Amino acid sequence: MIPEELIKRIKQIQIYSSRAVNASFAGQYESVFKGRGMQFDEVREYMPGDDIRTIDWNVTARTGKPYIKRFVEEREMTVLFAVDLSASGEFGTVSKLKNELAAEFCAVLAFAAAKNNDKVGLLIFTDRIELYIPPKKGSRHILRLIRELLSFRMPKRQTNIPLALDYVAKVIRKRATIFVVSDFIGTDFKKPLGLLNKRHDVIAVPVRDRVEIAMPSVGLIEIQDAETGQVMVVDTSSQRFRSQYGGRSAQRFAELKGLLRSVNVDLIPIATDKPYINDLIQFFHMRHRRL
Q1: SS3 for 229?
Q2: Which end of the chain has fewer CB within 10 Å, C or N?
């Protein structure tokens, strides 16, 4: 039986997503992600003005009349969300945890995909593959994905991004759009990410909290690494410490962006202290310009 609190949370996300995925948003989603491929439609007789490069020589030779191949845009798309729900995602200093933000972000895009009749699938991973739901269509299927994202609870785990990328490469054969949603604390994922992006359209979604970007001055505090359990006491009132902390955070994020750029993977950075719809719209505009 689904807990009442979880049902309430799912309904809240469903309502929010329905409002977010308005006509304008859905149109931007379609123009950015649709029509990326062509599929064969029919063979018909050649007409003056047709491109001679589309002539089907086999049919032409068999019939004695020139025929051409007709193609149409491949409208149906497969979307997969590969979501990192390791222990480091159970953190947040604003209104929601990083894992909750990841679930909401996926829900908005999943409803946009459903509105465009696309198939949507889900992979939840930590340092192992926790759950895989193959891509399907329909709003009931989308609600199941959201429920799994929100209800996922597991003993503290670390992150293995290469494992997840290799798994996706094995289970998704047809070209798809794959959103990798993670805080990208893991390492050594450049090669599998680059290989996956050659076959699919991979988009990285780094999820961060504002305290991970800049530490506020709140005196002596004890901090614990959620994935390793390591504990240390730091003096956040020290300007030197906050400056070094912010510098290291900025450097790590710059290195991540550089890595993604080197394998031609786009990114949509989202954070717990600001609306992610703005980040999505900015991403759509960037892709529009490129296309």
Answers
A1: coil
A2: N
Task: Return the residue matching tokens 């929010």.
Answer: 16
Beta bridge partners of 221: 234
Nearest to 142 by CA among 290, 18, 47: 18
d(CA 113, CA 120): 7
Question: Which residues sit opposite 121 in a β-bridge?
Answer: 80
Report whether 141 contacts 171 (CB < 8 A).
no
Task: List the structure tokens of 7.
Answer: 């049902």
Summarize pLDDT for 159-194 with one digit per residue, the tens.
899 999 999 999 998 889 999 999 998 778 999 999
Burial (CB < 10 A; 0-12, 13-18, 19+), residue 80, is buried
Domains, the chain, ranges and CATH? Answer: 4-32+76-202+268-290 (3.40.50.410), 38-73 (no CATH)
Residue 199 has which token pair?
Answer: 């076959």
- In this structure, what token pair is assigned to residue 63? 């019939």
